[in-house]
Design a protein that fits this description.
Radius of gyration: 22 Å
Largest sheet: 6 strands, antiparallel, barrel
Helix content: 10-25%
Strand order of the largest sheet: 12-15-14-13-16-17
CATH class of the largest domain: Alpha Beta
CATH architecture of the largest domain: 3-Layer(aba) Sandwich
CATH topology of the largest domain: Rossmann fold
Structural class: alpha/beta
Number of domains: 3
Strand content: 25-35%
Number of helices: 7
Order of helices and strands: EHEHEHHEEEHEHHEEEEEEEEEE
CATH superfamily of the largest domain: HUPs
Number of strands: 17
């Protein structure tokens, strides 16, 4: 089988390519370039990140790995698609007072969308597409299911819940059944990287406000009852649950509990006011079934690093759901994703609003 492997220049994708080649497949490496030459943000980027001028280092590493493995390699320009989809979503969400997750959109529309599509348009033929993500895809009863990785500490399904059946039908995740320790052992055994090679990086290596293309705008920091307790220079600089950097003196620590983009206000309260039992989600994507027909007991994550918590999901009109947690959750954040699970199966998810 001829398999296109998305090479990031990191350990995991390199081992994915290695494993597939050792299994006897014809492996083709490809890296997506998302940084336009001449991008003015190059002057303000402070450290290495996925989106930044230092992607040249990652590309060089991907080429080096391809040479070591003796596989064909291609560099694919996805910058236009990345800017139009990921960066525009990032900007519009932040300016609407929400906190987006660019990695989710990048995976769905760029890494597993534009990249293989552009590869085919370039005449690169392949049967399957693989990456170094820690997740599993299985076919059951004619439907492709996304399942959590064997290594629960590295599981990345939270970022993959927007994949559709067509995408899943072509995917291979060679690391899905592996522990990270085994991946690192293979890295050293095959001398692909040294022992100090770091993990994946942040989305952007500068200040997020660089991407919003908006000027500072002074507004009020208020309590839930409307009392003005401070000022800010842009509500988009804050996120739900934030405690540090508020610049407000109070008898107890204050936290951001809401953002009001229309009034240009940051609403703050005490820690107990950051807890809620219910959220609503939209822009749903279901994997395990086509639509949610009635209330369903499941578990849910509201951030990638959290444990899945017991919930009752109830369908609303207009392809939205209400999610009630068995216990109150801290800092439920509009714009972030809620992802639903039943045991190891990813049911789907949506965007909190």
């Amino acid at each position: 089988m001829r398999i296109l492997v998305g090479l990031s220049g990191g350990i995991d994708s390199a081992i994915a390519a290695l494993l597939l080649k050792n299994m006897g497949h014809e492996v083709v490496g490809a890296t997506m370039s998302i940084w336009r030459e001449g991008n003015p943000l190059a002057e303000v980027v402070k450290h290495k990140a996925c989106f930044g001028p230092n992607e040249e280092q990652d590309i060089a590493e991907a080429r080096r790995i391809s040479d070591l493995l003796g596989i064909e390699y291609h560099l694919l320009d996805c910058a236009q698609e990345y800017e139009a989809i990921v960066l525009e979503n990032f900007k519009s969400e932040y300016l609407a007072g929400r906190t987006p997750n660019p990695c989710v959109w990048c995976n769905s529309f760029i890494k597993f969308g534009a990249l293989p599509k552009i590869a085919r348009e370039r005449g690169i033929d392949f049967d399957k597409f693989a990456t170094g993500h820690y997740a599993r895809v299985v076919e059951e009863g004619g439907r492709f299911l996304l399942k959590t990785a064997a290594d629960s500490h590295k599981d990345q399904t939270y970022f993959l819940y927007r994949l559709n059946q067509e995408q899943l039908s072509t995917l291979i995740f060679p690391l899905g059944e592996m522990e990270k320790s085994e991946v690192r052992r293979l890295t050293l055994e095959y001398n692909l990287f040294d022992a100090e090679k770091g993990e994946s990086q942040d989305f952007y290596g500068g200040d997020y406000s660089d991407l919003l293309e908006t000027d500072p705008r002074q507004g009020e920091i208020v309590t839930p009852d409307g009392k003005v307790v401070g000022v800010h220079s842009g509500y988009w600089n804050y996120t739900i649950g934030q405690r540090r950097g508020l610049g407000v003196a109070a008898e107890r620590p204050l936290y951001v509990v809401a953002l009001d983009a229309e009034k240009n206000q940051v609403i703050v309260g005490y820690e107990e006011e950051t807890f809620k039992e219910v959220l609503k989600a939209e822009q749903l994507n279901w994997i395990a079934f086509d639509n949610l027909e009635g209330p369903l007991e499941a578990s849910a994550k509201i951030r990638s690093t959290s444990r899945a918590k017991s919930v009752l999901i109830s369908p609303l009109s207009d392809d939205k759901v209400e999610v009630k947690f068995a216990e109150p959750q801290k800092a439920i954040t509009p714009g972030q994703s809620v992802v639903f699970y039943q045991d190891e199966v990813v049911l789907g998810g949506g965007v909190i609003y």
